[in-house]
Amino acid sequence: MPTLVTKPLFALGKLLITPGALGLFSTPPYEASQFIDRHLAGDWGDLEEVDIDANNYAYQNGLRLFSIYHLKDKSIYVITEADRSVTTILLPSEY
Question: Is 0.85 surpassed by the pTM of this model?
């Protein structure tokens, strides 16, 4: 079930998506919005516990936020810069 964000935890800033990620979202079943919603809600995806703790610290202290979501045969990254001016969706190969 999709995460519904009624009040985001932080601002996304300008939303960017790389060509590879755009290609992934050009056909169902995935939509970029479902991962943006999770990221905005503080669901950092498939990170190790230590990385989740680091992201929670980053959120509380205005640092860069990083989420990774594993799909069936791909992964995507969602990265929000520390100043919250830009959020980028990309494939690991585009990092």
Answer: yes
